[in-house]
Amino acid sequence: FSICSRTVEPLEYYRRFLKENCRPDGRELGEFRTTTVNIGKCLCSITTADGSALVKLGNTTVICGVKAELAAPAVDSANKGYIVPNVELPSLCAERFRSGPPGEEAQAASQFIADVIENSQMIVKEDLCIANGKLAWVLYCDIICLDYDGNLLDASVFALLAALKNVQLPLVTMNEETGLSEVNLKQKNPLIIRKHPVATSFAIFDDTLLIVDPTAEEEDLATGTVTIVTDEEGRLCSVHKPGGSPLTGAKLQDCITRAITRHKEVKKLIDKVIKSITPK
Q1: Which residues are in the Exoribonuclease phosphorolytic domain (predicted)?
Q2: DSSP notation for 2-68
Q3: How far is 76 from 48, CA to CA, in rounded Å?
Q4: Which end of the chain is more exposed for a tag (fewer CB within 10 A), N or C?
Q5: Entry pTM
Q6: What does residue 186 show for φ and ψ, rounded to 5 degrees?
Q7: Residue 113 lies in a domain
Q8: Is residue 262 classed as helix, strand or coil in its secondary structure?
Protein backbone atom coordinates (compact mmCIF):
# COMPACT_ATOMS: atom_id res chain seq x y z
CA PHE A 1 0.00 0.00 0.00
CA SER A 2 1.70 3.18 -1.14
CA ILE A 3 1.48 6.49 0.70
CA CYS A 4 0.61 8.10 -2.63
CA SER A 5 -2.60 6.10 -3.03
CA ARG A 6 -3.71 7.18 0.44
CA THR A 7 -3.38 10.82 -0.62
CA VAL A 8 -4.85 10.52 -4.12
CA GLU A 9 -7.51 7.85 -3.53
CA PRO A 10 -8.03 7.58 0.23
CA LEU A 11 -11.27 5.60 0.00
CA GLU A 12 -9.78 2.94 -2.30
CA TYR A 13 -6.74 2.84 -0.04
CA TYR A 14 -8.99 2.07 2.95
CA ARG A 15 -11.03 -0.48 1.05
CA ARG A 16 -7.91 -2.53 0.35
CA PHE A 17 -7.30 -2.76 4.09
CA LEU A 18 -10.93 -3.39 4.97
CA LYS A 19 -11.07 -6.36 2.59
CA GLU A 20 -8.40 -7.92 4.81
CA ASN A 21 -10.45 -7.11 7.95
CA CYS A 22 -7.92 -4.59 9.22
CA ARG A 23 -7.30 -0.84 9.16
CA PRO A 24 -4.30 1.32 8.19
CA ASP A 25 -3.45 1.94 11.88
CA GLY A 26 -3.17 -1.82 12.47
CA ARG A 27 -6.45 -2.26 14.32
CA GLU A 28 -9.04 -4.91 13.55
CA LEU A 29 -12.48 -3.60 12.54
CA GLY A 30 -13.92 -4.16 16.02
CA GLU A 31 -10.87 -2.94 17.96
CA PHE A 32 -10.85 0.28 20.02
CA ARG A 33 -7.87 2.57 20.32
CA THR A 34 -5.93 2.66 23.57
CA THR A 35 -8.13 4.37 26.16
CA THR A 36 -6.84 6.19 29.26
CA VAL A 37 -8.50 8.35 31.91
CA ASN A 38 -7.08 10.66 34.58
CA ILE A 39 -9.41 11.97 37.28
CA GLY A 40 -9.38 14.89 39.70
CA LYS A 41 -6.11 15.56 41.46
CA CYS A 42 -4.25 13.96 38.56
CA LEU A 43 -5.20 17.15 36.68
CA CYS A 44 -3.34 19.92 38.43
CA SER A 45 -4.37 22.32 35.65
CA ILE A 46 -8.04 22.47 36.75
CA THR A 47 -7.79 23.21 40.44
CA THR A 48 -10.86 25.48 40.31
CA ALA A 49 -13.23 22.71 39.18
CA ASP A 50 -15.35 20.72 41.63
CA GLY A 51 -14.70 17.64 39.52
CA SER A 52 -12.51 17.01 36.48
CA ALA A 53 -11.26 14.29 34.16
CA LEU A 54 -9.09 13.89 31.09
CA VAL A 55 -9.78 11.10 28.59
CA LYS A 56 -7.58 9.97 25.71
CA LEU A 57 -9.01 7.75 22.99
CA GLY A 58 -6.03 7.18 20.73
CA ASN A 59 -5.03 10.72 19.74
CA THR A 60 -8.42 12.22 20.60
CA THR A 61 -8.04 14.05 23.91
CA VAL A 62 -10.95 15.54 25.85
CA ILE A 63 -11.00 17.29 29.22
CA CYS A 64 -14.11 17.86 31.32
CA GLY A 65 -14.45 20.24 34.25
CA VAL A 66 -17.57 20.41 36.43
CA LYS A 67 -18.34 23.60 38.37
CA ALA A 68 -21.15 23.58 40.94
CA GLU A 69 -23.00 26.78 41.83
CA LEU A 70 -26.11 27.65 43.85
CA ALA A 71 -29.23 29.10 42.25
CA ALA A 72 -32.98 29.35 42.68
CA PRO A 73 -34.95 26.54 40.98
CA ALA A 74 -37.18 27.36 38.02
CA VAL A 75 -40.79 28.18 38.93
CA ASP A 76 -42.15 25.18 37.02
CA SER A 77 -39.46 22.83 38.45
CA ALA A 78 -39.32 23.92 42.08
CA ASN A 79 -37.81 20.62 43.24
CA LYS A 80 -35.11 20.31 40.58
CA GLY A 81 -31.59 21.57 40.01
CA TYR A 82 -29.87 22.14 36.67
CA ILE A 83 -27.24 20.42 34.56
CA VAL A 84 -25.70 22.57 31.81
CA PRO A 85 -23.35 20.71 29.44
CA ASN A 86 -21.23 22.54 26.88
CA VAL A 87 -18.85 21.02 24.33
CA GLU A 88 -16.09 23.20 22.89
CA LEU A 89 -14.05 22.47 19.77
CA PRO A 90 -11.37 25.19 19.76
CA SER A 91 -9.18 25.85 16.76
CA LEU A 92 -6.18 24.37 18.56
CA CYS A 93 -7.66 20.83 18.49
CA ALA A 94 -7.78 20.48 14.68
CA GLU A 95 -7.39 22.56 11.51
CA ARG A 96 -11.04 22.01 10.59
CA PHE A 97 -12.28 24.14 13.50
CA ARG A 98 -12.20 27.93 13.73
CA SER A 99 -12.12 30.37 16.65
CA GLY A 100 -15.33 32.20 17.49
CA PRO A 101 -18.89 31.16 18.35
CA PRO A 102 -19.63 27.40 18.65
CA GLY A 103 -19.87 25.72 15.26
CA GLU A 104 -22.50 23.23 14.16
CA GLU A 105 -20.50 20.20 15.28
CA ALA A 106 -19.91 21.61 18.78
CA GLN A 107 -23.60 22.52 19.14
CA ALA A 108 -24.67 19.05 18.01
CA ALA A 109 -22.27 17.44 20.50
CA SER A 110 -23.59 19.63 23.35
CA GLN A 111 -27.17 18.61 22.51
CA PHE A 112 -26.13 14.96 22.34
CA ILE A 113 -24.59 15.17 25.82
CA ALA A 114 -27.72 16.89 27.18
CA ASP A 115 -29.86 14.09 25.71
CA VAL A 116 -27.62 11.40 27.23
CA ILE A 117 -27.89 13.00 30.69
CA GLU A 118 -31.68 13.21 30.37
CA ASN A 119 -32.33 9.79 28.80
CA SER A 120 -29.94 7.80 30.97
CA GLN A 121 -31.01 9.50 34.22
CA MET A 122 -27.35 9.42 35.27
CA ILE A 123 -28.19 12.33 37.56
CA VAL A 124 -31.75 12.86 38.77
CA LYS A 125 -32.36 16.61 38.89
CA GLU A 126 -34.41 16.25 42.09
CA ASP A 127 -31.19 15.11 43.81
CA LEU A 128 -29.74 18.57 43.11
CA CYS A 129 -32.52 20.37 45.02
CA ILE A 130 -31.53 21.73 48.44
CA ALA A 131 -34.68 23.58 49.48
CA ASN A 132 -37.88 23.20 47.46
CA GLY A 133 -38.56 26.34 45.48
CA LYS A 134 -35.67 28.17 47.12
CA LEU A 135 -32.26 26.67 46.43
CA ALA A 136 -30.67 24.09 44.13
CA TRP A 137 -27.34 23.12 42.62
CA VAL A 138 -26.39 24.04 39.06
CA LEU A 139 -23.74 21.80 37.49
CA TYR A 140 -21.85 23.47 34.64
CA CYS A 141 -20.14 20.70 32.67
CA ASP A 142 -17.55 22.11 30.26
CA ILE A 143 -16.14 19.54 27.86
CA ILE A 144 -13.19 20.80 25.83
CA CYS A 145 -11.48 18.89 23.04
CA LEU A 146 -7.71 19.41 23.18
CA ASP A 147 -6.83 17.12 20.26
CA TYR A 148 -9.37 15.91 17.69
CA ASP A 149 -8.89 12.64 15.84
CA GLY A 150 -12.43 11.35 15.53
CA ASN A 151 -14.99 9.80 17.88
CA LEU A 152 -15.62 12.95 19.91
CA LEU A 153 -18.87 11.63 21.39
CA ASP A 154 -17.41 8.52 23.05
CA ALA A 155 -14.57 10.53 24.60
CA SER A 156 -16.94 13.30 25.75
CA VAL A 157 -19.41 10.97 27.49
CA PHE A 158 -16.52 9.13 29.14
CA ALA A 159 -14.90 12.37 30.36
CA LEU A 160 -18.25 13.69 31.64
CA LEU A 161 -18.98 10.53 33.61
CA ALA A 162 -15.47 10.41 35.08
CA ALA A 163 -15.59 14.10 36.08
CA LEU A 164 -19.03 13.76 37.70
CA LYS A 165 -17.78 10.73 39.67
CA ASN A 166 -15.09 13.04 41.04
CA VAL A 167 -17.44 15.84 42.22
CA GLN A 168 -17.69 16.54 45.95
CA LEU A 169 -20.42 18.98 47.01
CA PRO A 170 -20.31 20.83 50.35
CA LEU A 171 -23.22 20.46 52.74
CA VAL A 172 -25.66 23.35 52.23
CA THR A 173 -28.60 24.13 54.51
CA MET A 174 -31.17 26.90 54.65
CA ASN A 175 -31.36 29.00 57.82
CA GLU A 176 -35.10 29.24 58.49
CA GLU A 177 -34.75 32.40 60.56
CA THR A 178 -32.71 34.43 58.09
CA GLY A 179 -33.74 32.64 54.90
CA LEU A 180 -30.08 32.53 53.87
CA SER A 181 -28.05 29.53 52.77
CA GLU A 182 -25.22 28.20 54.95
CA VAL A 183 -22.35 26.33 53.32
CA ASN A 184 -20.23 23.85 55.28
CA LEU A 185 -17.02 23.38 53.28
CA LYS A 186 -15.66 20.91 55.84
CA GLN A 187 -18.42 18.41 55.13
CA LYS A 188 -18.54 17.31 51.51
CA ASN A 189 -20.46 14.49 49.87
CA PRO A 190 -20.03 12.84 46.46
CA LEU A 191 -22.55 13.55 43.76
CA ILE A 192 -25.24 10.88 43.44
CA ILE A 193 -24.64 9.10 40.12
CA ARG A 194 -27.62 6.83 39.51
CA LYS A 195 -26.61 5.43 36.12
CA HIS A 196 -23.30 5.13 34.26
CA PRO A 197 -23.89 5.75 30.54
CA VAL A 198 -21.14 4.85 28.07
CA ALA A 199 -21.15 5.75 24.36
CA THR A 200 -19.87 3.44 21.63
CA SER A 201 -19.53 4.85 18.10
CA PHE A 202 -19.31 3.09 14.75
CA ALA A 203 -18.52 4.26 11.23
CA ILE A 204 -20.35 2.66 8.31
CA PHE A 205 -18.31 1.96 5.16
CA ASP A 206 -19.96 1.37 1.79
CA ASP A 207 -23.37 1.15 3.47
CA THR A 208 -22.70 -2.24 5.05
CA LEU A 209 -19.35 -2.55 6.85
CA LEU A 210 -19.14 -1.45 10.51
CA ILE A 211 -15.93 -0.32 12.23
CA VAL A 212 -15.74 0.82 15.86
CA ASP A 213 -14.05 3.91 17.30
CA PRO A 214 -13.42 5.69 13.98
CA THR A 215 -10.57 8.17 13.51
CA ALA A 216 -11.24 11.58 11.95
CA GLU A 217 -10.10 10.24 8.55
CA GLU A 218 -12.40 7.22 8.84
CA GLU A 219 -15.35 9.46 9.76
CA ASP A 220 -14.72 11.60 6.67
CA LEU A 221 -14.64 8.57 4.38
CA ALA A 222 -17.58 6.73 5.97
CA THR A 223 -21.09 6.67 4.47
CA GLY A 224 -22.56 7.17 7.95
CA THR A 225 -21.96 6.96 11.68
CA VAL A 226 -23.99 5.70 14.63
CA THR A 227 -23.48 6.08 18.38
CA ILE A 228 -25.05 3.69 20.89
CA VAL A 229 -25.33 4.65 24.57
CA THR A 230 -25.94 1.94 27.17
CA ASP A 231 -25.90 1.79 30.97
CA GLU A 232 -24.51 -0.82 33.40
CA GLU A 233 -27.72 -2.87 33.21
CA GLY A 234 -27.38 -3.20 29.45
CA ARG A 235 -30.27 -0.79 28.97
CA LEU A 236 -30.30 1.19 25.73
CA CYS A 237 -30.23 4.90 26.64
CA SER A 238 -29.77 6.49 23.23
CA VAL A 239 -29.20 5.80 19.53
CA HIS A 240 -27.65 8.76 17.73
CA LYS A 241 -27.57 8.47 13.94
CA PRO A 242 -27.17 11.77 12.07
CA GLY A 243 -28.26 10.68 8.59
CA GLY A 244 -26.09 8.64 6.25
CA SER A 245 -26.44 4.96 5.38
CA PRO A 246 -29.44 3.14 6.89
CA LEU A 247 -28.84 0.22 9.27
CA THR A 248 -30.72 -3.08 9.20
CA GLY A 249 -32.23 -4.36 12.43
CA ALA A 250 -29.57 -7.08 12.58
CA LYS A 251 -26.72 -4.56 12.15
CA LEU A 252 -28.21 -2.30 14.83
CA GLN A 253 -28.53 -5.24 17.23
CA ASP A 254 -24.90 -6.10 16.54
CA CYS A 255 -23.93 -2.51 17.47
CA ILE A 256 -25.93 -2.70 20.72
CA THR A 257 -24.32 -6.03 21.67
CA ARG A 258 -20.84 -4.62 21.10
CA ALA A 259 -21.75 -1.43 23.01
CA ILE A 260 -22.76 -3.50 26.06
CA THR A 261 -19.36 -5.23 25.99
CA ARG A 262 -17.57 -1.89 25.62
CA HIS A 263 -19.52 -0.51 28.59
CA LYS A 264 -18.01 -3.17 30.86
CA GLU A 265 -14.49 -2.24 29.73
CA VAL A 266 -14.99 1.50 30.31
CA LYS A 267 -16.73 1.02 33.69
CA LYS A 268 -13.89 -1.24 34.82
CA LEU A 269 -11.34 1.41 33.78
CA ILE A 270 -13.15 4.20 35.67
CA ASP A 271 -13.56 2.06 38.79
CA LYS A 272 -9.84 1.18 38.74
CA VAL A 273 -8.76 4.83 38.47
CA ILE A 274 -11.18 6.03 41.17
CA LYS A 275 -10.00 3.25 43.51
CA SER A 276 -6.38 4.33 42.94
CA ILE A 277 -7.07 7.95 43.98
CA THR A 278 -9.46 7.24 46.87
CA PRO A 279 -7.78 7.79 50.28
CA LYS A 280 -7.45 4.54 52.23
Answers
A1: 31-170, 197-260
A2: -HHHHHH-HHHHHHHHHTTTB-TTS-BTTPPPPEEEEEGGG-GGGTTSSEEEEEEETTEEEEEEEEE
A3: 31
A4: C
A5: 0.91
A6: -80, -20
A7: yes
A8: helix
